[in-house]
Fold Claudin.
Amino acid sequence: MASASLQFFAFILALFGVFGDIAATLLPHWKVNADVGSNIITAITQMQGLWMDCTWYSTGMFSCTLKYSILSLPVYIQAARTTMVLSCILSAFGICITTVGMKCTRLGGDIDSKNNACFAGGICFILAGIFGLVPTCWYTREIISNFLDQTIPESSKHEPGGAVYTGFISAGFLLTAGVIFCSSRFKRQQGAWNYPPKQHHFPSTEQDSNAGYSLKDYV
C-alpha cells in the first residue's frame, strides 16, 4: 500500500484538479478574440465560454450574455458542457471516497476496506480526468481549425483562453492522483504474492513414536 505521505500528496493534487475543473467549467475564457481596430479607445475583447459570452471594452464596461438555447449551440460545445459537468461530479465523489480510504484518516474500517475505497476513488479521478481532457482537446482543435481557415475573416477568429489551459492542467492533476490511489491496492497485492505466509512444519508422528523408546531397552 502507498505511504500516507504519497496519498496525501495525491489528495492535494486531486483538490487542485477539482477546483480547476469547476473554474474551467464556469469561466467564459474558452475562446478569446481581441479586436483593437483603428482606435485603441474602441478596442474590445470578446470571450466565449460554455455558458455565456462576455465582452470587455477598453472604456471599462463589461457585459455578458447567457446561452439559453442548447440546440442552437455547436456539437462540441454541447459535448463540452456534458463532459465537464460529469468531470466535476466524479471528482467530487472521488474526494469523498478517498477521504475515507486514506491511511491518515480513521474512517473506513480495516486495511482492506481502505484499499478498496482508495481504488474506487482513484477510478473516479481517472474518469474525471478523461472527461475533462476530451472536451478541452476537442475545443482546442475547433479553435485551431477555425483560426487556420482562410475563408473565415480575421475578426471572427479566436485563440484558446485561460479556461482551456486550466482544463488541461486540472485533467493532468486528476489523472495523476487517480493513478497513485489505484496503484496503492496493486502494490499491496504484489507484496502478498511475493511473500507468501510461512508454513509451520510439524514433526511426523513416526519421529514422535520413535522418540518415546529408550535405547537401553535394546541393550
User: Anything to note?
Assistant: The chain has five helices and five strands.
